Amino acid sequence: xxxxxxxxxxxxxxxxxxxxxxxxxxxxxxxxxxxxxxxxxxxxxxxxxxxxxx
Length: 54
Ligand SMILES: [Zn+2]
Fold this sequence. Notes:
Layout: E1 3-8, E2 14-18, H1 21-26, E3 39-42
Antiparallel strand pairs: 1-2, 1-3
The structure holds zinc ion.
The site of zinc ion has 8 residues, from loops.
């Protein structure tokens, strides 16, 4: 199943979800940190392995 990258606009947390295509189509994504629904998908066409240590 594909992995989708999201950014929460409420708390700025980036997270990834493994969703089936049908789950993704429903678009019901909430931030795992603050439960906000103000999340936007980050378009990642490639399997970008970015290890961010901030
Ligand atoms: Zn959040």
